C-alpha cells in the first residue's frame, strides 16, 4: 500500500478528494448549526485568527525544513561528485596498469552512486550500500598495495593492512 503513496500525483488526488469531502461536510454542518449569540462572534474570530496563525507557522516551518534538507542533500551530492572527480584525476599518480584499474572501479562506483540517488527503494539502498562498500575496499586495497610496492616520500605514512 505504501508504494501507492510514493507517487506525488496519487497523494495530490487523495488530498484533493479529502479536502472536497471535508468542505462538503463543513457546509452541511454549518447549515445545521445555530447562529452565534451576542458576543460569541468576537470570541470565535479571536480563536479562528489564533488557529490560522499557528497553522501558518507550522506550514512555514515545514517548508523551511524541507528546503534546508534539499539544500543539504544537493551540497552533499556535489561534494561526493567532486571527491570522485578528484580521485579520478589522482589515479594518474599510479602506474599505468593500476591507474586504468582504479578508473574502471571508479566508473562502476559512480554508476552505483547515480543509481542510489535515482531510485527510492529501501531494499535496493542496502544492496547498493554493500556493493559500494566492496568497491571502496577494492579501491583502497589497490592503492595501498601500489604504494607499498613503490614507496615514495609523499606516501611515507603507513597504510593499514
List the helices and strands and how they pair.
Elements: H1 8-32, H2 40-90, H3 96-118, H4 122-149
Can you put this structure into words, describing what you see?
α3 runs antiparallel to α4 (about 120-150). The chain has helices at about 10-30, 40-90, 95-120, 120-150. With about 160 residues, the protein is mainly alpha-helical. The protein has a domain at about 75-145. It contains 4 helices and no strands.
From the structure above, extract its key features.
single chain; 161 residues; mainly alpha; 79% helix
Which secondary-structure class do the elements indicate? mainly alpha
Main pleated sheet: none
What is the residue-mean pLDDT, rounded to a whole number? 86
Spans with pLDDT under 50 lasting ≥5 residues?
Answer: none
Strand portion: under 5%
Form type: elongated
Q: Distance between termini?
A: 47 Å
- Approximately how much helix is present in the residues? over 70%
Number of helices: 4
- Order of helical and strand elements: HHHH
What quaternary form is this? Answer: single chain
| Rg (C-alpha, Å) | 29 Å
Q: How many strands in all?
A: 0
Summarize the structure.
The chain is 79% helix and 0% strand. The protein has 161 residues and is an all-alpha fold.
